[in-house]
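Design job #97: recover the sequence.
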């Protein structure tokens, strides 16, 4: 099994529900920060996160991109992303953790990945909401909080129902239209499936034809869809995923550049160093020094 080089927190680290297939966690953000001081350093999670900010300020860094923290902001995170934050002492709101298994228990045919805010390749992981929108979401959050704090019959079923309502409401607020994104339904599904495949296979350095075959399209069609929708070729998307993991490991893991090259499937260190500098303008060690 591949060794992980970054802290990866399991949902049970936060006293979620005790059955492995039903993990769910809900807390006020202020209480969460106070009770889990270890989360301030950069780390990964193996679950999905929704964070509602109702007060406070600061910055939230997700995979080297820095976002402003302010009231009326909702953050979405997927398993494997590296994040950290710098927050004012009055930061508060609500934070929810859950797994695909918890969600699928009541909705076996639905995937969290299908919500646009849980698709990092295509969409921004941040939503700004108005006071009116916040007022509409608040009753659902309060129902989740109350249900999570009680021990009642069918508690987990109720939590999953409220969670699904919350996700649908957030989807309605977030959902970009086709004119804004250039995506049609078929293209969006193709790109979502491509992202999943890239995440599984990027260390293998497979050609574009490998991905096209598994998505049941031609390499040309796949490239054209990526270029038209995202402005990048399929190869560039694969390279971006490799670079992102290299950056994560350089900054957050105690590995040499050569070890990171091997970790990412590059057994010619020189080739990896050239690849990294070509796309970032820095050598691996220069990037590490700059971002430490």
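Job complete. Output follows.
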């Amino acid at each position: 099994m591949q060794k992980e080089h970054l802290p990866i927190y399991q949902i049970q680290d936060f006293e979620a529900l005790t059955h492995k297939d039903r993990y769910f966690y809900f807390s006020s953000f202020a209480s969460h920060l106070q009770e889990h001081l270890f989360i301030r350093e950069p780390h990964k999670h193996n679950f999905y996160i929704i964070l509602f900010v109702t007060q406070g300020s600061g910055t939230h860094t997700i995979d080297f991109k820095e976002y402003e923290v302010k009231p009326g902001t909702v953050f979405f995170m997927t398993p494997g992303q590296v994040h950290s934050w710098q927050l004012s002492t009055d930061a508060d709101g609500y934070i929810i953790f859950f797994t695909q298994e918890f969600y699928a228990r009541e909705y076996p045919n639905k995937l969290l990945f299908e919500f646009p805010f849980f698709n990092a390749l295509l969409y921004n992981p941040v939503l700004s909401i108005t006071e009116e929108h916040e007022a509409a979401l608040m009753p659902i959050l309060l129902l989740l909080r109350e249900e999570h704090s009680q021990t009642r019959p069918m508690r987990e079923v109720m939590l999953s129902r409220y969670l699904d309502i919350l996700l649908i409401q957030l989807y309605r607020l977030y959902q970009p239209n086709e004119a804004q994104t250039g995506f049609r339904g078929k293209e969006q599904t193709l790109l979502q499936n491509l992202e999943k495949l890239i995440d599984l296979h990027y260390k293998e350095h497979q050609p574009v034809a490998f991905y096209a075959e598994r998505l049941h399209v031609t390499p040309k069609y796949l490239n054209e869809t990526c270029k038209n929708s995202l402005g990048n070729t399929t190869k560039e998307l694969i390279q971006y995923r490799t670079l992102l993991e290299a950056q994560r490991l350089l900054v957050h893991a105690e590995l040499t550049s050569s070890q990171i090259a091997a970790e990412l499937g590059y057994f010619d260190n020189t080739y990896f160093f050239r690849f990294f500098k070509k796309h970032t303008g820095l050598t691996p060690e220069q990037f590490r020094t700059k971002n430490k």
